[in-house]
Write a structure and sequence with these properties.
- GO terms for molecular function: acyl-CoA oxidase activity; FAD binding.
- Belongs to the acyl-CoA oxidase family.
- Its cofactor is FAD.
- The protein has 25 helices and 11 strands.
- By secondary structure, the chain is an alpha+beta fold.
- The longest helix is centred in the middle third of the chain and has 36 residues, at about 370-405.
- The strands form 3 sheets. Strands 1, 2, 3, 5, 6 and 9 form a 6-stranded mixed sheet that branches.
- The structure holds ligand LEIVNPRT and flavin-adenine dinucleotide.
- Flavin-adenine dinucleotide (FAD) binds near residues 177, 460, 466 and 470.
- Ligand LEIVNPRT binds next to helix 8, helix 10, helix 12 and helix 14.
Length: about 700
């Protein structure tokens, strides 16, 4: 796997073997080291025990609040341990693998995961969790996450009967081929064609231009045998727009591309390891024929004669798979954010800098108010996203049930909420992972901290499944005030209400928070509407275009209101366990007041609060941070992540960071040899040349 030099000596994780350094030059730590045995003995110490002892709540019960139920804690725990104890699922070396090695490793893990799922007869819930803890993006994510849901959502019952059992048993592997080289956001602009040929009862799938090449679909590059392909349906000479088709791409015998199909991987992506385990692909069709019944026909059909028939359902149901994936991306945001925060909180409790008096211990960096004011809002956001994710999942389930009964009244609300929450939670999480890296100082930049890889894997979430800006603009289409828009019905009150807050403690009142957030969101929306009509007296679209940056901010304000509202509702519920409700209350207040502080300009500009009230909110925020401080480590323990899943020497449960960092360094392929490859070609001649020059002087 790792390359060793031909003319270099091999060093098996030896501590100080450089022939150029004498023992006396070794750092003090090494002089006392007794090698890895010593490291292991040290690892048994819980460096965070004192932190855990200061928690003022029942951590086991907080795990239940985080996971959603006792059953969820139990299943997640079992699956996480199953993965962590299996050597095939090891991931500590993956940033050092070449792209080919990484891809093969992903295939191996996916196959092994499937073997374990079958052997242990895991339920769907258990299997999903097992895959999550394997923690390596791969074709299976798209197979289960988009291919299967697309067939379920857009296929007729007959089509589902035919295709789903094959997919469930992995007799076929599928991906979701929508985006093209020329168009991603603008789905209506896709160019691939599916032209019906009544003579043969087939569709002819074709890529007429370079820009019509499918580009990006995950799992397409190397693994998939089939795809749901989105193409313009043409029949009887008329273009009926974008529809989904099941197309076989590769032979089920030898995996070679079928005639007329050209496909491959689109190339390396951002970061080492990270999303490079995924084979995002390119695909072109040269008049590929598929039977008519491979058009997904639940929403519209083409008859044997070639007549186009549209069922009496909204055409946007074609976008249903995207709504499904967007809601799951919100749940994923809380997972990624909580991982980063868990690493940063634990490490901040271990790391000490400055403040030593009379030779005593230095200050834990977690005690610095600046560290707290950067870190605790992220901790609170992780909890906030978790709860809004649960609510969104409920909303999605509710809409799906209504759709089954041909009730389409909540479709628009589901689209707006999934699009907006996907945009806000992924943007915040991507920024937060980078902030956690900085919160961990220099060591946060090491791959072994887990943060660079987490960041690189996570950032495309701001783009895939809808670019975040494009999605936020979807919220601004001015619909009837229903569901989460209901507060807009209180327009007269909210346009002129004045906050009654007169002390810092008043900001602990959820009604005060709710009113300020509702007034801000509503006033921003109303301002936008007024500005749009002023900007364009003739055309609303022109005003919309002109004012789109303001619309974005109004959309964010609306989504932040939803997140705050759902957190407040959560805290109002009965929550068992000593001190659990109180901690969640504090985190809810941290989240809300932090957003208020960060967007103070909006609150002031719209006149929702006064500058004095803004200052009081900030004062209260400082008090809340002090309240969170003794509970911080226990609050991240409640995420219940194994060291394997965290994949971070800085975030280790036992806090024994330094020996782990030290040992990790020696695993780097560069340290396989004492004298580096290239020494004889490049370093030695250089040094010798300089020595020669000096000797001539
Ligand atoms: C550490 C390891 C962890 C492992 C993690 C692995 C995780 C892997 C997870 C995921 C892998 C990545 C998956 C990514 C897959 C993809 O990216 S698939 C491609 C996704 N593509 C997009 O999202 C494209 C974005 N564009 C759109 O959604 C639409 O084109 C648009 C909504 C922007 C515009 O739609 P369009 O039809 O062109 O025009 P409009 O006029 O704006 O809309 C017409 C009306 O339809 C309503 N509408 C739009 N979308 C929906 C919808 N989804 N549902 C319901 N309704 C919708 C819209 O509001 C308009 O309504 P009105 O006419 O009433 O105003
Ligand atoms: C890792 C990854 C995995 C993916 N997996 C898949 C997959 O499995 N299947 C699949 O089909 N696709 C997949 N995609 C493609 C993805 O869905 C698209 O890249 C995404 O929808 C964004 O579209 P785009 O690339 O066309 O961006 P563009 O629309 O070209 O965006 C470029 C810029 O233009 C701005 N912009 C665009 N339109 C507007 C507008 N109307 N108003 C204002 N600003 C605008 C955007 O904000 C952005 O800043 C994946 C992408 C990535 C990165």
């Amino acid at each position: 796997m790792w390359r060793g030099g031909s003319n270099t000596r091999t060093c098996k994780r030896r501590f100080f073997s450089s022939p150029t350094r004498s023992r006396h030059h070794r750092p003090p730590y090494m002089l006392h080291s007794r090698g890895s045995q010593h490291l292991k003995a040290m690892a048994e110490v819980d460096h965070l025990a004192a932190e855990r002892a200061t928690a003022r709540f029942d951590v086991e019960e907080m795990k239940v609040a985080w996971a959603g139920s006792r059953h969820a804690v139990h299943v997640a725990d079992r699956m996480a341990r199953l993965v962590a104890s299996d050597p095939v699922f090891r991931k500590d070396n993956r940033t050092m693998l070449s792209r080919k090695e990484l891809f093969k490793d992903t295939l191996r893990k996916a196959a092994h995961a499937w073997k374990r799922i079958v052997e242990l007869r895991l339920t769907e819930e258990e299997a999903d969790l097992l895959r999550q803890y394997v923690d390596q993006p791969g074709y299976v994510d798209l197979h289960w996450g988009m291919f299967v849901p697309a067939i379920k959502g857009q296929g007729t019952e007959e089509q589902q009967h035919k295709w789903l059992p094959l997919a469930y048993k992995f007799q076929i592997i599928g991906c979701y081929a929508q985006t093209e080289l020329g168009h991603g956001s603008n789905v209506q602009g896709l160019e691939t064609t599916a032209t019906f040929d009544p003579k043969t009862d087939e569709f002819v799938i074709h890529s007429p231009t370079l820009t019509s090449s499918k580009w990006w679909p995950g799992g397409l590059g190397k693994a998939s045998t089939h795809a749901v392909v989105y193409a313009r349906l043409i029949t009887e000479g008329k273009d009926y727009g974008i529809h989904g088709f099941i197309v076989q791409l590769r032979s089920l015998e030898d995996h070679s591309p079928l005639p007329g199909v050209t496909l491959g991987d689109i190339g390396g992506k951002f970061g080492s390891g990270a999303y490079n385990s995924m084979d995002n692909g390119v695909l072109r069709f040269d008049h590929v024929r598929i039977p008519r019944d491979q058009m997904l026909m639940r929403l519209s059909q083409v008859t044997r004669e070639g007549k186009y028939v549209h069922s009496n359902v909204p055409k946007q149901l074609l976008y249903g798979t995207m709504v499904y994936v967007r809601q799951s991306i919100v749940a994923d945001a809380s997972k990624a954010l909580s991982r980063a925060v868990c690493i940063a909180v634990r490490y901040s409790a271990v790391r000490k800098q400055f403040g030593s008096q009379d030779g005593g211990p230095e200050t834990q960096v977690l005690n610095y108010k600046t560290q707290q004011s950067r870190l605790f809002p992220l901790l609170a956001s992780a909890y906030a996203f978790r709860f809004v994710g649960d609510w969104l999942n409920w909303l999605y389930t509710d809409v799906t049930q209504k759709l089954e009964a041909k009730d389409f009244s909540t479709l628009q609300e589901a689209h707006a909420c999934t699009a907006g929450l996907k945009a806000v939670t992924t943007s915040v999480t991507a920024d937060a992972i980078e902030e956690c890296r900085k919160l961990c100082g220099g060591h946060g930049y090491l791959n072994s901290s887990g943060l660079p890889e987490l960041f690189a894997v996570y950032v495309p979430a701001c783009t895939y499944e809808g670019d975040n800006v494009v999605l936020l603009l979807q919220l601004a289409s001015g619909k009837q005030p229903v569901g989460t828009m209901a507060y807009m019905g209180k327009v007269q009150y909210l346009m002129q209400c004045k906050s009654a807050v007169s002390s810092a403690e008043d900001w602990l009142n959820p009604d005060a928070i709710q009113e300020a957030f509702e007034a801000r969101a509503l006033r921003m929306a109303v301002n936008c509407a007024q500005n749009i009509s002023q900007a364009a007296s003739q055309e609303e679209a022109a005003g919309f275009y002109e004012r789109s940056p303001d619309l974005l901010e109004a959309a964010v304000a609306h989504i932040q209101l939803i997140i705050v509202t759902k957190f407040i509702e959560k805290v109002h519920q009965e929550i068992p366990g000593h001190g659990v409700k109180e901690q969640l209350q504090a985190l809810c207040n941290v989240y809300a007041l932090y957003i208020l502080h960060k967007h103070l300009g909006d609150f002031l500009a719209t006149g929702c609060i006064t500058p004095r009230q803004g200052a009081l909110a900030n004062e209260q925020l400082g008090k809340l941070y002090a309240q969170v401080r003794p509970n911080a480590v226990a609050l991240v323990d409640a995420f219940n992540y194994t060291d394997h899943y965290l994949g971070s020497v800085l975030g280790r449960y036992d806090g024994d960071v330094y020996p782990a960092l030290y040992e990790e360094a020696w695993k780097d392929p560069l340290n396989e040899t004492v004298v580096p490859e290239g020494y004889h070609e490049y370093l030695r001649p250089l040094i010798k040349q300089q020595q020669l020059k000096l000797s001539r002087l």
